[in-house]
Amino acid sequence: MHTTHTAPATPTVDVVPIRRVLISVFDKSGLDRLAAAFVAAGVRVASTGGTATALASLGVAVDDVSAITGFPEVLDGRVKTLHPHIFAGILARTDRADDLEVLAAHGIERFDAVIVNLYDFQSVIAKPDCTPAQAIELIDIGGPSLVRAAAKNHAFTSVVTSPSQYDALIAAMTRGGTTLVERRQFAAAAFEHTAHYDAVIARWMARHAGLVAEAAPSAASAADASDEPPLPARVTFELERRLPLRYGENPHQSAAMYAPVGTHLGLAGLKQLCGKELSYNNLLDLDAAVRLAGLLQDPAAVVVKHTNPCGAASSDVAAEALVAAMAADPASAFGSIVAVNRLFDRSCAEVLCAPGLFVEVVAAPAFSKEAVELLTTRPTWKASVRLVEVPAGDPWEATAGLELRSVAGALLAQRPDDECDDPATWRVVTTTAPPPNLMQDLDFAFTLVRRLTSNAIAVCRGTSLAGAGIGQTSRVDAVRIAVEKAGEKARGGVLASDAFFPFPDSIELIAKAGIAAIVQPGGSKRDPEVIAAANAAGVPMVFTSRRHFRH
User: Which residues are catalytic?
Assistant: First the structure.
């Protein structure tokens, strides 16, 4: 007669003595403490590979897993613990007679605790020379399975996944066993551990393989397809609160900065050296400044106000670039965010110490000691300025290569527009080509305009921003504002547009301002009219065939 066994709604076992453990750890820190506790408590230990060797050297008698399973490690260690003699010993419920009968019938012994941490996949893939084959070999299979099995059976089995938990386990062993409350806490941490581990692998795999969307692309999207891999159908990452903020864009809005767990690139890895705490708006402006500075190849400085550059320049040294950037629009530069793409040295600091200047935040890959001393002792705003180091590296690695932006109830995702343009692919469309000495200026202007809010126009003189038309609903208005901002600097300068000119009226304003050359994407059905207007005005124009909207 078949007997049906029903598990109790609430486990009847509270304290579980630790008599036999399975241990296999990648991170071997703290193993000496565990070993001493095992010996003192007479705990029987089963282990694998390097962990078994380390424990034996610490005086622990270790049962090799292969002896328990009756099967050797195979496939270069890919298969070690995946066996009923292991998993039945972890998953058996001690308050169920049928489970205990199965163990007895097959000669399987229970494990009271499983101590496992996983291959450090995240650190390996962060290395620049890591190959896909190396990464794949560090995808742990048995480890997460052991952890999940023990966590599932936490009513009867303890699971420990971090050296930081060893002291709690040792204390429980000493007093006679773990309580149900402790095992639940261990299990919760274990599931967080495996969830984070799987999320890291999922992000890497999405980037590596370019997972295809579940739905086939439409004809329109296929026609516009680039060489980039398709966006993944699903993106998984775990966010942690990295930086509490006093409030959001306005004082009545609560706010914080969150970052994917484990990532320390971009603003997620910023290090504030001094000054007041950063605000929500500071971080938005800081992102805009750092990203534009990173696009400029030569030593460069960027001055940002309300997420838009009001000054930017490149030069042979960072200090010279900073002088030119601050001079582009001194009124707007007051209370701005400043970023340079080189070491912020004493010369840079002396530029900002000039009378009448005030900046909220200064960002750089690194600061010299002399620069920090000057900025925190000399200017009147010394106590309030924030000096922030932002590490180099790919900040999109943690989000599967995607730039994310929130909308109501959802996220928009796109590949970042962070690749440099190649002027060698540009096409002169007017009868007269820009003189060779202006090509660097055009390249600089087109780099700047991509980080201005659309509709956007940038007027540059040399490799310095002279005037910008930002966020306008008509392109002709953006042109008018940019040339007015530039004033006399527009004459002989260059102008860049982030998208095509829909009508020739903008060209008329540009010519009147004395602009020497234009760079724009092209692509309007009225391109012939715009080109004719440029030819009539004698203003050389270049098409890039690449748009740079930024909303």
Answer: 152, 306
